[in-house]
Structures are given as structure tokens and as C-alpha cells.
Specification:
Blueprint: H1 2-21, H2 30-57, H3 70-82, H4 85-104, H5 111-124, H6 143-149
Helix pairs in contact: 1-2, 1-3, 2-3, 2-4, 4-5
Length: 153
């Protein structure tokens, strides 16, 4: 029950930060840049707490072991980290082992891989898992093996 409360609390904070994100879009304004940086740092702290919970619980909280919406809340927190170029790689590196384990345990879908491709394309101009049409693939020679490993059609 404590895990659910913690995720709910993180989700509420995440949504509050998202409501302020609209004020940080003017990249020419120093205050806007600082505000955006502060939001990104807080987003990452939320993800770190999810990873700590995953370590304590022996895996990523998911709808099979907790409430059905718990992974949706985690996924939104992840997306808010992936959308920020400064957080993208470190957030992915931090949580990927837990996402991958939950995926191979049949607890979550591969939607997190699709999200990775979308934001990787946005930040770097390439994808990794091959979900997007007409977008270059990083390590293309290994793509068919990745698709096979993750059962991506």
C-alpha cells in the first residue's frame, strides 16, 4: 500500500510540474530556461524515487501487483523525463533495466520502446527500435535482432 501512495504522490507532483511547463517554452528568456531546468531536475528526482521503489520491491510497480493505473502514472513520469534532452539518456539508463524486466515478465507492453524512439528522434534525429517510418535507425545492422528480442512486428 505504501508503494501506491508514493507513486500517487509522485504523479500528483508530476502533473503539477506539467501545468507550469507551459511557462518555460520561451528559450530566449533566461528565467524560462532556469524554470525549465528546475522542472527537468525535479522530473528526474521523481524517476529516481521510482527506481528506488523498484529496487525495494524487486521490480517495477505494475498493474498486476498493484492498482491497474500505477504503470500509467509511472509511464507519464518517464515520458516527462524523455521529452527533456538533458534527462533523456540518464533517465533511460536509470530505469531501462526495470522496464525491460517488467516487459519480459509480461507485466507491461513495449510502449516504452516506442516512446524511446519518438523522443530519440525528437532529440537526435534517429530511432533505435524501428517503430517510426522514414526515420534513420541507430545501429541499423542490429535492428532485426532487436525486433526479434523484443517481439516487435
Amino acid at each position: 500500500m505504501e508503494t501506491i501512495k508514493i507513486i500517487d504522490n509522485l504523479y500528483d507532483k508530476d502533473q503539477l510540474l506539467s501545468s507550469f511547463d507551459a511557462f518555460s517554452t520561451d528559450t530566449s528568456c533566461l528565467q524560462s530556461k532556469l524554470f525549465s531546468t528546475m522542472i527537468a531536475q525535479e522530473d528526474f528526482r521523481h524517476l529516481e524515487e521510482i527506481v528506488d521503489l523498484s529496487k525495494e520491491n524487486g521490480g517495477l510497480p505494475n498493474g498486476f501487483e498493484y492498482t491497474t493505473d500505477i504503470y500509467q502514472k509511472i509511464q507519464l513520469i518517464l515520458l516527462h523525463n524523455l521529452k527533456t534532452k538533458e534527462n533523456f539518456l540518464k533517465a533511460w539508463g536509470l530505469i531501462f533495466p526495470y522496464l525491460e524486466k517488467a516487459y519480459f515478465d509480461g507485466k507491461i507492453s513495449y510502449s516504452f520502446l516506442y516512446a524511446y524512439d519518438v523522443y530519440s528522434n525528437m532529440h537526435f534525429g534517429y530511432q533505435y527500435y524501428g517503430f517510426l517510418d522514414k526515420v534513420p535507425v541507430k545501429d541499423n545492422e542490429e535492428l532485426s535482432e532487436r525486433k526479434k528480442r523484443y517481439k516487435i512486428q
